[in-house]
Amino acid sequence: MFSIFKLPVAIEFPGDAEDFQEDCSRQAPRRVSDFPVQATRRLGADVEEAPANLARNEGGLQFSVSEINEYYTKTKPRLAAFNPAAVSEAAARTEPSRFARFLMWGYALAVRIRRLLPWLFLPMLFAAGLLEIALLRLVLAVRPPERTGLHERSRPIVRELVDQYPFGAYAVVWKSLQLGYLRESLPWSEMHRVVEAAIGEGTFSARVFQERLKVDGMDINPISLKKAAVLPHVQRALVCDCTEPPLHPGSVDLLISNNFLHHVTDKGRVLRNWSKVARYCAFNDCTPDWSRALPPSWILRKVGLIGLSNRIAAVVDTLGAQSLQPREVLEATVNEHFEVVSSASFFSARTYCIANVYSLLCLHMGPIPEEIKQCLLHPWLRRMSTGLTQELCDLLIQFDSRERRDEDVALCYIGRSRSVAASPRQQGLRCECGGEVNEGGECNACALRYSCVDGMWFILPAHLKYVEANYDPRAAAEFPREHL
Known about the structure:
This protein is of the alpha/beta class.
């Protein structure tokens, strides 16, 4: 087991096959549907063959890429809420290409080295940080940044994040700009009942809302949601399908979802569902440059090796459970369901590439892995690590302020629903049958009773009941509070 992007993921190694198949066989079957083939990219395999291959089931493993987000569920505590089918082509029906298999095994070997010798990576991080700071200062001295707008508002936010993400320039810059946008642009005066879909462990949500509002936190992952449930701003925690929230039409003033839509295949369906239950929705997504602008792909593209760059990006998309669309395609879908009242883009491909150097040095995608993070936060190194991170990320935000916005990786939207009911008849939670779930967890229409476990309500449809069955409160308690 190792960590990919932001969530722990299991990949089969020799000797783990029986364990892996046992994990997978406990899953409920998936429904294979006719969603777009381009969203079914697998580790180097032929995309056009995906539907036929995915319809087969071997060794008890049911697998479908009809909705990428359904992989974010758990089978056993050690899988920590990520369905291994998302990345386990080595154990599934169709073998990945040799190229993809080489990248998978190379990455897995690198992770084992990193876990054995985390201190080995520190000199590289400090050296790269000092070099980038010097170069960024030089560039900004020649071409000064803009001192207004979103980027300038976001610079003070950096210091709020450096302790959570030492040398995690990618995470700090992204979340600082996202927080700067949301704090300024959310319709605060019109927000009374707020739900957050895919709240995760809630640390980012807490920074958005602070003490201004209480929210209902929703997530399919009870291990992460348990951490959010105890935060002061979360009044209720719901384990549910965030792509189809168990809410009555028009019953919510704002549905907000941060860093989630890029893990969704059928974005139109999800945005349509959200637009029915909330007057306003706030969400973000990524352009395909999320994978194409990572250092290896970006450098290969710049030297003309576009084919190889695209192959690496496709593998990264699969490992990160990403379903990314061109900006114009995404915006057409958004405009179909919402009247966009505010939008922003940031993190140009070039800035994104520079910020991800530290993840590359740690042989990782996403924030700095936990074992290296703990070394960086050692009492002897903490002040130096956080100080360099703050200086570096402040310079990166200034650098990004002068970039072309048509090359941005991150896209944020706040939209007014085009289809929400003007006066909702019901305000509570919605049962599968369409009835209302009362405070005791029982549906007033069909008498179906939902359970509350560990302070969380499990409002799950039948095909996701295994999430509740496999939840282990002891494993959740042992999991790190900050892991996204």
